[in-house]
C-alpha cells in the first residue's frame, strides 16, 4: 500500500481529519446559523446531533475506509458489493459540488486578509462590489485552488498531514489569541449572553433541520471524505477514540469561534444586538467595521489575523475535498497523483465559475431559482450549497444503512475492534450498535425527507 500513502501516526490522522472538519463551516457559517436559530437553543440541538447522529456515521465511514484501503467508490466494491459503488460516486460528486463553491468563498476570505493587512476596513461596506469584481475574485479563487492542489500533490503524509500539523495548531493559537482579546472589550458579556442564552421558543423544523445540515457539513460527513482519510489510517489505531477527538475538535472550534465573534460584534454595536446582520454578512460585512473600531494598529493586526485564520481553516478543508476525487482517479485509473490533481483542480475550478458569477454579476445566476412557496429567488451558490447538504444527509443515511444491513454489523464491529482493546466488552459497542442499526437510519431518513420538503417545496409538516 506504500503507493497510496499513509498517515504517519494517530495524531497526523486526527489533525488532518479535524482539518477537514474545521473550516468555513465552523467560523463563517456556524455563528450566523446560531444567530438565525435562536442562539443557544440551536447550539444545544447541534451538540445533540453531533454526538448521537453524526459520531456513529463518522465512525462507520472511517471503518469502511480503513477496512478496504480504497477511495469511496472502490471501497464498496472491495467489500463485495459492486452496486453500492454508486453511493461512493454520489459522495465524490457531492465533494466536487462543495469544492466548486467553497473555493470561491475561501478566495473571498483570502482576499479579505490582503485588504485587512492594508488597513482597508471600508471593504465591508463594499462587499457587493468586491464579490462582483469578477477578475479579482477569480484570481483569488485560482490562488486558493493552486495552494490546495500543491498540498494534495505532495501526498498523504508529505502534503495533507504536514499541512494540517502546521495549520491546525496555528489556527488554535490565533483563535485563542483573538478570543482572549475580545473578552477584554466593553460589552463583551452582552455578546456572550446573546450567544449562550437559549431561546427555545425559536426552535422549529427549519432550525432543527438546519442544525442537522450544519452538523453534517461541519463534520465533513456523508460524502466519503472520512472513508478516504480512513483508508490511509493504520490498523493499529483506535477508530472510536480518534473519531471522538475529531468530533470534539470540530465542535470545540465552532463553539470558540462564536465566543470570539459575538463579543467583537457587541463591542462595535455598543451592546445593541437587535439588528446585527446575519448571514454571509456577519463576517464579510460586519467584521471589517468591528476591526476598524479597534484602532488602526490593532485593527490591522486582529483583522488580518482573523482572515488569515479563516483562510487556513478553509485550506485544510479544500485539501480534503480535493483528495476525494483524486484518490478515486489514482485508485481506479492507476493515474499518477500529480496528473490526477491537475485534472481535478481544473475541472472543479471551472465548475465553480457559475458560483463566482452568481453573486450579483450575472443576473440569471444571481436569481437562479425560485422555490415553491418562496417569495424571492435563490442564487446559484446558495442553491448548490442546499443541494450538497441534501446529498450529505442522503449519503450519511445510506452509509449507515449499508453498514448495518448489507455489510452487516458484525463486520463493522470487527473492524472497530482492531486497535481497540476491550471494544467488544465496551459500552461504546452497544452505543454504536443501537445508533448505526436503528437511531441513525430512522432519524436521518426522516429528517432527510422533511428537509427536502421544507427546503425545496416550502412544506413544513411539523408546524
Ligand atoms: N467541514 C468543512 C467545513 O466545515 C466543509 C467540508 C464538507 C469539507 C464536506 C469536506 C467535506 O467547512
State the total count of DSSP E strands.
Answer: 0
* Structural Rg: 21 Å
* N to C succession of SSEs: HHHHHHHHHHHHHHHHHHH
Bound molecules: phenylalanine
As a percent range, the share of helical residues equals over 70%
Molecular shape: globular
Major sheet description: none
Give the CA-CA distance, first to last residue.
53 Å
Overall residue-averaged pLDDT value: 93
Q: Which class do the helix and strand fractions yield?
A: mainly alpha
Strand content: under 5%
Low-confidence stretches: none
Can you give a write-up of this model?
The chain is an all-alpha fold and 463 residues long. 76% of the residues lie in helices and 0% in strands. The protein contains 19 helices and no strands. It has helices spanning 10-21, 24-36, 40-68, 72-78, 85-117, 127-132, 134-153, 156-183, 188-196, 205-218, 225-230, 239-268, 281-292, 296-333, 337-351, 353-357, 363-366, 380-417, 427-457. Helix 3 (40-68) packs across helix 18, helix 3 (40-68) crosses helix 19 (427-457) and helix 10 packs across helix 19 (427-457). The chain is globular and about 60 Å long. Phenylalanine (PHE) binds at residues 20-21, 23-26, 98, 217-218, 220, 223, 225, 317, 320-321.
Summarize the structure.
The chain has helices at residues 10-21, 24-36, 40-68, 72-78, 85-117, 127-132, 134-153, 156-183, 188-196, 205-218, 225-230, 239-268, 281-292, 296-333, 337-351, 353-357, 363-366, 380-417, 427-457.
Amino acid at each position: 500500500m506504500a503507493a497510496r500513502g499513509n498517515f504517519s501516526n494517530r495524531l497526523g490522522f486526527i489533525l488532518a481529519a479535524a482539518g477537514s472538519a474545521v473550516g468555513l463551516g465552523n467560523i463563517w457559517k456556524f455563528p450566523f446559523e446560531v444567530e438565525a436559530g435562536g442562539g443557544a437553543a440551536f447550539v444545544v440541538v447541534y451538540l445533540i446531533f453531533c454526538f448521537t447522529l453524526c459520531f456513529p456515521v463518522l465512525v462507520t465511514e472511517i471503518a469502511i475506509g480503513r477496512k478496504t484501503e480504497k477511495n469511496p467508490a472502490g471501497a464498496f466494491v472491495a467489500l463485495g458489493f459492486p452496486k453500492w459503488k454508486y453511493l461512493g460516486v454520489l459522495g465524490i460528486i457531492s465533494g466536487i459540488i462543495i469544492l466548486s463553491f467553497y473555493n470561491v468563498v475561501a478566495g473571498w476570505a483570502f482576499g479579505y486578509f490582503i485588504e485587512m493587512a492594508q488597513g482597508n476596513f471600508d471593504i465591508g461596506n463594499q462587499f457587493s462590489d468586491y464579490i462582483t469584481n469578477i477578475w479579482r475574485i477569480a484570481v483569488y479563487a485560482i490562488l486558493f485552488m493552486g495552494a490546495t492542489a500543491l498540498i494534495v500533490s505532495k501526498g498523504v503524509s508529505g502534503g495533507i498531514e504536514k499541512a494540517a500539523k502546521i495549520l491546525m495548531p496555528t489556527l488554535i493559537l490565533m483563535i485563542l489569541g483573538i478570543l482572549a482579546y475580545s473578552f477584554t472589550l466593553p460589552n463583551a458579556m452582552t455578546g456572550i449572553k446573546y450567544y449562550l442564552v437559549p431561546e427555545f421558543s425559536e426552535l422549529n423544523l427549519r432550525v432543527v433541520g438546519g442544525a442537522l445540515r450544519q452538523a453534517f457539513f461541519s463534520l465533513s460527513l456523508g460524502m466519503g471524505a472520512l472513508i478516504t482519510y480512513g483508508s490511509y489510517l493504520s490498523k493499529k489505531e483506535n477508530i472510536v477514540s480518534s473519531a471522538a477527538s475529531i468530533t470534539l475538535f470540530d465542535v470545540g472550534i465552532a463553539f470558540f469561534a462564536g465566543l470570539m465573534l459575538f463579543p467583537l460584534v457587541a463591542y462595535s454595536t455598543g451592546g445593541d444586538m437587535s439588528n446585527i446582520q446575519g448571514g454571509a454578512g456577519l463576517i464579510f460585512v460586519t467584521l471589517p467595521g468591528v476591526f476598524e473600531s479597534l484602532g488602526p494598529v490593532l485593527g490591522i493586526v486582529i483583522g488580518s489575523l482573523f482572515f488569515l485564520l479563516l483562510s487556513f481553516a478553509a485550506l485544510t478543508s479544500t485539501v480534503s475535498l480535493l483528495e476525494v476525487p483524486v484518490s478515486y482517479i489514482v485508485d481506479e485509473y492507476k493515474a499518477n497523483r500529480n496528473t490526477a490533481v491537475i485534472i481535478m483542480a481544473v475541472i472543479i475550478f471551472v465548475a465553480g465559475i457559475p458560483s463566482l458569477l452568481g453573486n450579483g454579476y450575472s443576473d440569471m445566476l444571481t436569481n437562479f431559482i425560485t422555490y415553491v412557496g418562496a417569495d424571492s429567488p435563490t442564487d446559484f451558490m446558495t442553491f448548490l450549497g442546499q443541494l450538497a447538504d441534501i446529498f450529505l444527509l442522503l449519503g450519511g443515511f445510506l452509509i449507515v444503512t449499508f453498514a448495518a444491513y448489507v455489510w452487516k454489523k458484525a463486520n463493522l464491529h470487527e473492524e472497530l475492534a482492531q486497535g481497540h482493546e476491550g471494544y467488544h466488552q465496551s459500552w461504546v459497542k452497544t452505543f454504536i450498535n443501537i445508533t448505526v442499526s436503528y437511531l441513525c437510519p430512522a432519524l436521518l431518513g426522516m429528517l432527510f425527507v422533511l428537509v427536502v420538503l421544507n427546503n425545496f417545496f416550502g412544506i413544513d409538516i411539523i408546524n
